[in-house]
Amino acid sequence: MSEEFKVEIVNPEKSFLTKDDATEVVVPAFEGEMGILKDHISIISFLKPGVVKVYSKSDENKYFVEDGIVEFKDNSLSILTSSIYNVSDLDRNKIEQILKDAEKESTEENIDDQKKYLINQKIETLRSLQSN
Questions:
Q1: Model pTM?
Q2: Is 74 helix (H, G, I), strand (E, B) or coil?
């Protein structure tokens, strides 16, 4: 019996990833890191800044997302995000630039608590990617 399911990640520019043989996907949901396997219950959740990990029998891929929506239904996972980067393609300069922009954004005067929380999540994730 196959333990695989379909994953599609879409951003405004294009369909970023389509994979029919995912065995597990871990997403940075607002509720915490969520692992999804075949036959998971149907869900819809929001993503916070973090790393989406897509596992299959042949490989493992990691993607940095800043936000998004995740939906799992009938063994098909859809992730819609406005900003996504393949972690293996992120060089130190790109990480530093995104980090610098986030740190600048976090010092703005009229920032609400939710936005501050999300920016801090983004900064924390970028720093962990920077140290790898």
A1: 0.90
A2: coil
